[in-house]
Amino acid sequence: MVNKILLVDDDDATNYLSREILVDLDAAQEIVVAQDGDVACDLIQHNNCPDIIFLDVRMPRMSGFDFLNRLDKMQVCKKLKVVLLTSSSRVEDREKALQYANVLGYLEKPLTWQSARKVIEEYFQ
Amino acid sequence: MLNARLAIVAERKAYIEWMEKKSSELARATAELEQKEQLEMYAKALERTNHQLEEFAIISAHDMKSPISTITGLLMLMEDRKAVKESHTELFEMLKKSAGQTQKTIQALNDAVAFKKTLTIRREDIWFENILQEVRQSLAEPIMASGAVISADFSRCAHICFPPIHMKSIFQNLLSNAIKYAKDGESPFIDISTFVEDSFIVLTVKDQGLGLDLDLYRDRVFRLFQRFHTHKEGMGLGLYLVYSIVEAYGGKIDIQSEVGRGTTFTIYLSNADGE
Q: pTM here?
């Protein structure tokens, strides 16, 4: 179990689904939701840094990649890892994502118990 | 004096006739040029429209993926939570099935759109036998399950200069279809051969499967999402991909089929840098 997971997705339903699955897995003591990158950045700067962020790639105001670039410039704790969630199966997006040092995984939506469990295990390795 | 004047008049008359002739030629050339410019303008407008339609297809296919994957996930959660009353089980199953079908269709649409972008891969010298072996491996399970027999004769033309990934896709889709649409209770028998005809390398793939009624379907056979045997699973993507590949590389494809007797695909491939 990690201390805190932050879910960042502009879609309520996706956040709901991801949260239910992570609660089932006892993945974190606290699960927080943000519906865009700006809110997520605020949460990270003014509260305890999350351990894992589940991040949507396609968001209207700030894409997942824009958020990663902003995260790079912020003073964030080293333990923070990001898991990208996407509907896109484009190889070039996956390759781009894995170039970021703090990206732990690149998963296709919807998040499942199996894919969430695997990524949490990888976090602890 | 009179003769000199007559000569001058004749000369001027000839000059005027020459000028009139040149003027007509100029008018014709101008009209042709205007027509050519107009055609070029239409061609550019058509290219822009095609590009916009392609973009629309890409964006639509992509934008639809996210909500349908969320629906599928939420249905999965409902099932896990046993949130469906027993009396509504059948309704829920139909909902799951529709969502699954929609997801497959959107995925197929995404695949078709993504595929179009791969049509500029370089040609290489490839051997048909090698391609067939690769495809046999990737179709190992359905081949074994169906007891399919695949016979190949590449003695008349063993190789071609063609993008390997696309040749593999042609073989994969045609063999996969031949196996899938075999007659019930019968093992598929597929016959593949190649030969040279004029400037083309011809590939034929023949099966003895269900066949289809070309009187009804000839116009639709190679279109996207067309299915002719709905009791078998499939998205109607395979023949569209084969047709797209063949056409993109300057070839053509012909189909002969008879219901209950089988189908023969004859593919004419240009061999750009080869023999």
A: 0.61
